[in-house]
UniProtKB/TrEMBL annotation:
Record protein name field: CGLD27 family protein
Swiss-Prot/TrEMBL keywords: Membrane, Transmembrane, Transmembrane helix
Keyword presence, Transmembrane helix: yes
Domain of life per record: Bacteria
Transmembrane feature ranges: 45-64, 70-93, 148-165
Keyword Lipid metabolism part of the UniProt annotation: no
Pfam families: CGLD27-like (PF06799)
InterPro entries noted in UniProt: CGLD27-like (IPR009631)
Amino acid sequence: MMESSVSICPVPSEQLPINEYQELRESWFFSWATLDWVSYVRKMAWVWGWSWLLTGPVASASFAPQKAPGQFILCGAALSSFFIGLVLLQLYLGWMYVRDRLACVNVIYEESGWYDGQCWTKPPEVFTRDQLIATYEVQPILQRLQRTFAILVLSFGIGSLIWIIL
């Protein structure tokens, strides 16, 4: 029964929420959020470490490492964490978009790509499938990203307290 509903679907294949979800899941960048916890933390640490190539010189220009090593490290770490924040924001927005598309009963799409927006109402079986994917596949990814944001904010708070002590 689902085959017939999907086969008469007017939405171009690349704009179907299930295909957008699959594309995001298989993409190089967005798949980071789906990795096991250790691999996910490694990716975030990798971004943080490499961002020191940009933030290290800025931090050293502000705080000489020989004279103020604590401020240098905290400044560089905070600036590098800003890059982690940007990565997390991009991941979160991408997954949130797909989750919203999966959870909505109507699919807005473009037929020719020139401002001819159309709307297709998902049949019940397609809507149910998409709801299940949004709830059990995408929502845990979003929760992981939210927890990571919380840890990042907590680390900024701890770094601020250490800064005051120094």
